[in-house]
Structures are given as C-alpha cells and as structure tokens.
Amino acid sequence: MDERRNRPEYDSSPKKWRYNFSKSLFTFWKNVKMYGDKNERITEEITFFKQVLDFFFAEKDELSILFDGIDIKVDKVRIRGQRQDDKYFEDIYDLFLSLCMSGITFKKGVRDEEILTLLGVMGKYPVGREPKIQAYERVRGDLPPLEHIEIYPYDPEESGNLPIYTPEQSLRRIYCSLARDFGDIRKMIDAAESIPLRMTERRVQDLISIVSNAKKIETLEFIMFLASVPSFEGSSESAFAVSMVIWSVLIAKKLKLDIQSVKRVAVSAYFQYFSKDKEKGYTALSRMDEFNYDRIEAALNASSRISDFSEQALLSDKTASSGTVSGEILKVAAYFSAVTRKWSADSFYKGPLMTRPQAVRSVVKLCSKGVFNKEISEAFFSMAGIYPLGSIVRLFDGSVCVVVKKFKNFFENSEVLLLDKDLSIGERRSVTAENVLDIPDAAGVVLPEKTTVQILNTFLDEREISNEKQQ
Amino acid sequence: MLYIGKKLELVEYFRSVPLEQKAQLYRGIRSIMAMLVKVSKMTEIYSVRDKIFSEFTETMKQNMDVIHNLLPFATLSTKKVGFYYQERKIKLFDEGERKFRNIFLTNEIRELYFVKGITPQEIVDFFAVIQETLNYTLLDYDFNTRLWDYGITHIGTISDPDMGDPEPWEESWFKSDVATVTPEQLFSMKPQNVNELSDIANEFNMLPVVDMEKFSKWAENCGKDAVVGKYLEKAVRSVLMNPDSDSNKNIVGKICEYAVKNIQNGDFISGYIYIDSLIVLEKNIVDKGGVIYQKISEVLGRIRSEDFLNTVFEVAFGISDPMQIESFSKLLNVISEEQFETAFTKLCELDNKAVRLACLEGLAKNLKDKEVVQRFIENPDWHVVRNFLYILRFAYNPEFLPQVREVMNHQVKQIRIEAAHVLSIYDADENLEYWERAVFCPDEEVRILAVENLVKVKDMKVKSIFNEIFKPANRSKFNLTDYERYMDRILASGRNEFFDLPGSMIFSENRELRIIALKSLNKISNPSMVLMQLKRRIKSPEFLSLDKEEIELILGLMKGELITPMLENLEYLFTLHGNLFNKNKYLPLKQQVFGFVMQRAAKNMAMRNWIEKGKQTGDNETRSVFEGRS
C-alpha cells in the first residue's frame, strides 16, 4: 500500500520523524531484549536510530520521549495511534509503566555505546507490571553514568492530578499555543502537507467558550490587550495571526452570530495569509482528512497569497471570502491588526502605520465610504472603544501611559497605566478620554518585553499571581 | 463545551464533598459506563439515529437522574489501566471496554463529567460523538472538539490542555522582530494637538445607524453555505481546467465523499451543495473517458440508486428545519430523475407531512410519463392516490387531465378534494362541466374550488349556475358559511357581469343571506358596482324597519365614490318623523345614521356639508340629533 508518509514531500516532516523515533526506539529495545546487545541486527538498528536522532539534532540540542501515564510525547508533541502499524504503542506504554519511568532524553553527541547500555539495562526487566518506584531504582542502579542520556522516574500518585487552569491562565496557554504553532503550520503549508486544523480548532473553541462565559469585564479586557501584543517570540506575523483570531471572535460574538459561525470565522482568521503561493492552500485542502466548513474556509484563506497582503488588497472586494460574513469580519480585523503593527523589513506587510486610536477612526471613515460593513464596524468599535487597549497615549500633565480599559466614549472614566521614566509600569489612573491625547509618532511602537509582561500581570487576579510566584 | 471556569468549579466542589453514598454512586457510574461501552459497540453497526438507541437514551437518562439526585455532578477518571471512580477501578467485563477507553486516552482526557440537567438530546449527541471518535479515528476527529461542536453542556471532560502548573509570562516570549522603543524616544514624542479632540469627537458621529435585523438576514444568506459555494465554484473551475492533476483528483474525491457523507449524516443542505457541483462537473467535463468523469458518474449513479434512496429516507425521518427540507426535496429531485416511482412510493410512507409535501412538489418536475399517472391514479390505496394527485398540482400537463377528471367523483373524499385542486391549475372553461357538477358536491372544499374556478370561466352559462346556487330551492344544500365564501369569491373576481347577484341578494327575504351579501360587499374596497341596488334599498320602506346590524353594514358601504350618492338618498331622513301616537318612531334610526356620518365628518367635506344641510332643512328631531341634544 502506498502510504502518504512515504512520498518524497514528507521526507522532512517532523511528524513523520517523531513516529519514526518512537517506533525505532521500540524495535531497538525489543531486539536487544530478545537477542542481546551483540546480535547481527544491532548495527542496522543503531544506524536507523542515529539517523532519526540526527534529524532532530539538526535544529535542537536534545530529544526526549516522555510518558505521563496516559500519553507518549516525542519532542514534547503527543504521538497519536493513527498509523496502520502502530500496535507497538501499547507496548511502549507497558515498558515505561513497568520500569516506572516517565521519560528519556537524548542529548546531541550521544554515543552508540551509551544507547546500547541504556537499552541493555531496560531490556533486563520484564514488562506488564504495576509501576513501582523500586523498578526505576533498579534501572537507575544498573546504569553507569551516561553523559548524553537522562532518564526520569514516573510518579503514579502525581499522574493525572494536575491543577486546572483559571480562565486567564487558560487564555495565556491558548495565546502562546496559537502564536507558537504559527511558524510550524506555515512550514507545513509550504511543504504541501495537510493543515493540522484540530489543535487550532480546539484552541479557538476554548477561546470562544471563555469569551462567551466571561463573568468579568476584565477577562475581555485581558483578551483585547493580548490582541495588541506586537510580536511573539520574535515574530510579528504570529502575533498578527492571533490578533486576527481574537478580533474576529470578539466581533462575531458581538454580532450574536451562532457559535459555530464564530468558530468558523475565527479558525479561518488564523489561516489567512499563511501561504507564499496561492495554490498551496488549495493543495493543502485536497490533503485534508476532514472536509467540513471550517476546514474549507481555513484552506481557502490559507490560499490568500501573502503578497496580496497590502493595504489595497485588504480593502478590496476581490479576496476569496469577500461578500461572506466571515470575509467581511476578517477584513476589519486584518486591517486593524495590520496597520497598528510595525513589521520587520523582510515581512510581508508594507502598508501605512497608524496608532490604535487613528486606526479605529480610519475604520469609521472607511465604513462611511462603504469599504467596511456598517454593522461589523459598529460591533468592532463597540468592543475597541475610542482608545483601544494597548494604545500608548499622553495625559495633559505630560505622563505617558498605556490604555488598559476600554474608553466607551469621551465622557466616562476609564483606566490607564502610567509608564515610569524607565518604562516600567507605575500608577493605575482613572481618566476620561477628553483628558487623553494620542501620540501619532507612537504608531507601531514596541514596548520593552519587561513592560509588556508587567502590564499582562496586572490582568491576573491576586490568587493567580501568588500561585505563579510559588512556581 | 464545559467552560474552563465551570470545570474548575466542578473539581473544587467534587473534592470538597464527602461521598457518603459512595457504594450507590459507584454502582450508578458503573452501570452508565457499562452502557456506554455497549453503545460504543452498537455505533459500529448502527447510525445513532437508529431507533435502537432510543431505549439506551432513556435508560441512560434514568441512571443519570438517580446519580444526580445524590450529587449534582458525576465524575470519573480515565487512566491507562481503566476507568476510576474515586480511586476505585470500575470493573467492566466487556471486551469493548479497552477500545472505548482508548477514545479517552488518545484524546488526552483525564476526567469525564456528567452534570445535573443532562437532556436526552445531549445523550444522543454524546453517542454521536462516541461514534465519530471511535469509528473515524483515522480522520481528524477529536472527542473534545466534537463535544463542543454538538453544544453539549452537561457532559464535559478535563483533558491535558485544561491542566498544568501555571507558567508565568516570560519576557523572552515578547521578543520583537523590530527594535523596542527607548524611554528617551517615547517621552520625546509629541502628542496630537488638543484642538483636534473636538474634530475627533465629531468623527465618531459618522458611525452609521445599524440595522441588525437586516444584517442577520444578510448573514444568513452569506454564511457557511456561501463560503462553501465559493470554494466549490473555484474547485469546479480548477477541475475543469485541469482534470488530470493529482490535487484536483483529490478534491473531486473529497467532493464525492462529502456529498455522500453529509447526506448519510442527515445534513441535506451541505450534501446537496456538493452534489450540485458534481452535476455541473458531470455535464461539463470534456474528456468523458477520464478518471474524474468516471468517478463522478459512479458517485452520481450511486446517489441515484435505490439503495441510497433507502438510506436517504432513513435519515430524513426527523428533519424539521425548512432549509433542510428544501435541500432534501432538491436531492429527491435529482434521485427521482431515474427512480421516480421508488422515490414516490417511499415518500408516501413518510410520516412527516411537511417534508412529504415539500418533496412531492419537488418530484413534479420529473413526472413525464402518462402511463405512470394512470398506474398511480388506479392504485387501490387512497393515500397513494392522494399523494400522487398532490404531485399533479405542480406538474402541469394537459395529457394528464383525463385521469384527473376520472377521479373527480371518487368515493374517497380526500381524493375528490385533491383532484379538484389539480383541476384548478388547468383552464376553467375546458372543465366547465366538471365544475358545474362540483358546485353541488358534498365536500365543502370542492364546492369552494368549484366557485373559484367558475368565476374564471368566460362562458356566461356560469351566471345561470350561480343563480342556481342562490335559488331558494337549493338553500338547503348549502350552509351560510358556504354562501359567504361564494359571495367573497364572486366579488373578488372583479367581474362586473356577476355583481348583480350580490346586489340582488341585499333584497333577499332571508335576513341571513342579506347579511352575508352585505358583509362580503363590505370586504371589498370599492363596492360601487352595487350603487343602483343600494340606492333602491336605502329609499325602500323596508330600510326603515331594518335592525341595527344590517343598517350598520349598509352604512359601512359609504366609502369612496359611494359617499355622495348614498348621502343624497338618505336626505329624506332629515324630515322623516313618526305619527301622532309615536312621534319618535324614527329617532333611533336617525341617531344611528346621523351618528355614523358625524363620526366620519371630520375627514370628509361632503359629510360635513350634509350635516349642515340636515341642520338647516331638518326638523327639530333631526337638529337635536345633530346638535347632540338627543
């Protein structure tokens, strides 16, 4: 049978190599267990195992396989039993459980003898036993010190008993995961792999549930502030993609769209402008296992060419999804998220830069010209306010501050965080919009990482902060 | 779709509750899990819409209720080696348990919750989630994602992404690809001019007034179907340009797969969109021998097959959404091109009337064969004949007329009614003799249809038919409601040649008939064609002795061009008086008529003039009425 993973285009797929690693580890261990570490197949096994390790060591210094009582994770990514020949998964579970081990880390430079020693010791003990710490201690005792391999014990008591996140902590996880995945997914689309939509879908669903059930306005403000973060792990593009997701959820919820439509808009928002080549998204679609509405739209959006990401293209009616509800929501979200962000020289957006307040006004103006749908613009404005969260503004007394609460209109009080002379955060002050001035030159300004973290921490409640300090 | 905050609440609650009735709860949870394992095995064979699951749903709900009477939440942990309730392993001696448990393990689920308030629909949807995650593991299905998609709020999970030690924000995460601002730079930046604030405040007034109702309608039309439609348009164009490319072959494969899959899942809207694209492709592919063409023909052939038809009817059993019904009807249309008789027979068995009627209408397009008509008209089952006649309502073809006429006098009432409806779509003149007879049919609905058709007949013979209806000798054959309806139909026809009939009816000796005629005349906006009769009626001595209701109805006709002539003919009331023994005999009549005119006089000059004239020329009694003294 012609397996898709055996085609040349999958040669450099990390997913495939993660599977290869788990399988190779298993067959290697089995071989050593059955025939000892001096049989004729060992050379073949070790060559393949090293080949797998080398793939990961090209970019990383170490590679781990971890077991948490439920799943196997290779390189911190969960391995799911999806292949036809993956029956060995159950055996790997049993192996780890019997030896009461939670993981092994292989470090760059690992030698053949070290691997053989480890597998030799592991092969000495029977499998299919209840996990007992003595089993791990026996393995530990039998192993000589290994420079490039580390093993970890498994604690049956701790397993599966982790704390549950609060909504704010969950939001942080969602934000970081979406932003981190961006680069990986882009690579997959460029390699014409299918789009791994499930995890994005799941994160978007969680985000929608939090927005739908938010009991405190502060939770929504936290989300809006996250949308203003200019860059994540050195990438404006990934922060932009998450900002698109957040704004599309907020707008769609405000418009009272049904929850499935909100999800569809948000998932497709994430995938807009992923591709360098228009046909890649289309090709990625053809590789999808599931073919539902979300996926079709995501793939359609992934086929929006990055080179089309200019101001003219953003405002034109010729995009793949224009004229549809999601297309029109994305138009507002993409415009606002793009023009308020400073892009690196090699990035794809080359349009004008605006401050957040200027961008809101620009949306209002363009809406009256018919460029944006009026109901969508109104929903956007009612969420963003006059000075959207994250705006850097000046008070009449000369202080510079960051907006951390929505300014609904010019007369009601809202809140800003004053910035000290060294740009660390100072007093939180309540002011009306008529006492606040925009700073046109601050368009796209990026605050130091330390300031951003300080501001983000102000959105967590006391319990969370004390929890995190303990960590 | 349990919200993370709620999950946290549940866990905290559960940990704080002493489980005194642990044994009972354990048994309850165990029976639920045993049933779920059984259900998971059944889903491999049957669709969750199958009736077999109704019993499971009911029992499951009962079991849940028993547990929830003790505790509002039931939770169990899923571990590699089994399900656990409060650290006690749930022993299930069923070989399906491992496979079922695997769903939770592969989906990173640590705990499964059942919250009080669970509905039977949620249980059925939960079965569907189990089916999808268990039987489509090769696809990208995910248990939690599907729970959310189904909107299940009383069953939830705690899985890996919900759990963990909180990691504080790290500064390194916010490293930027552009230089960060320095304090000196930021503090030296000039703010906007204060004067601009007033201009900015005005800019926000430019925000247009929104119309959410209009938006919702637009959103409905431009929602998910529009997106898929756009995609499919693109896909069809791409496939037609290059049918041999691998990605296009894949896409066509997916369109075929999803056309069938969506229908099988009961989503006719989505299914039909895909099928429609396949039909376009089938018609336009130039190289009919190509792989793609073969694939499309094969799938469309399958969709048009009898087997598929059976599946379609199985899933159409419970649909109620009008949009789904419309798509189901379109689908049947496609299928009935080749399977007309089978599709029709299956439709006759469908209990859901709304769906059945919508689909029968859709089927009409494919009814072309006279012999098929003959065959079904002669069917011994009157339900079949009636349903078939319903199709004929929408299948205009004069060739079918003889068969329809044949059943106009059928012994079954429902058939007679349906046949009359069918006959109504044809030229009424050609069927005059049938309508003439139908007027005296025992069925009320048929009689009405007959009158509706007779008013369309050009032949003046029809007038004598109407006269016949209203003849005193035939009154016993009709009830008063009939007469009212006939009158309404005759007047609604707008044909002046018939109007002498209601006109003459206002002189009828039978009060009820007079009232009916007047009521019908009151319903039309311009009753001027009965002016002559009205004038005569007003001046007649009988007018003075009519009861209040009838006078009110006659006065009600005083509108538009009838106002002036009617007022003129009522002027004799100004000086009308009683005799020596009963001087005020006509006072109530005057009060009613003058009162009627006075009420409307504010908006009508002719009435105001008439009142003035009455005051000047009328007798004392008249003046006192106009001046409000009596």
Plain-language structure description:
The complex is a heterodimer of chains A (471) and B (630). With 471 residues, chain A is α+β, with helices and mostly antiparallel strands. Chain A is built from 18 helices and 10 strands. In chain A, strands 3-2-1-4-5 form a 5-stranded antiparallel beta sheet. A 5-stranded antiparallel beta sheet of chain A has the order 9-8-7-6-10. Chain A is elongated. Chain A has 2 domains: 4-153, no CATH class; 167-466, no CATH class. In chain A, strand 2 (72-74) and strand 3 form a beta hairpin. The two termini of chain A are 50 Å apart. Chain B has 630 residues and is mainly α. Among the domains of chain B are: 4-162, no CATH class; 225-303. Chain B has helices at 4-16, 22-42, 52-70, 97-106, 120-135, 143-149, 183-188, 196-203, 212-221, 224-241, 246-264, 268-284, 291-303, 306-315, 322-349, 353-363, 370-377, 382-392, 401-406, 413-423, 432-438, 444-454, 461-470, 480-492, 500-505, 511-523, 531-539, 548-556, 563-570, 587-601, 605-617, 620-626, and strands at 73-79, 82-85, 88-89, 109-115, 155-159. In chain B, a hairpin with a 2-residue loop joins strand 2 and strand 3. In chain B, helix 2 packs antiparallel against helix 3. Chain B is extended and about 110 Å long. The mean pLDDT of chain B is 85. The chains are: A alpha+beta (471), B mainly alpha (630). Chains A and B meet through helix 6, helix 7, helix 10, helix 11 and helix 12 of A and helix 1, strand 1, helix 4, helix 6 and helix 7 of B.
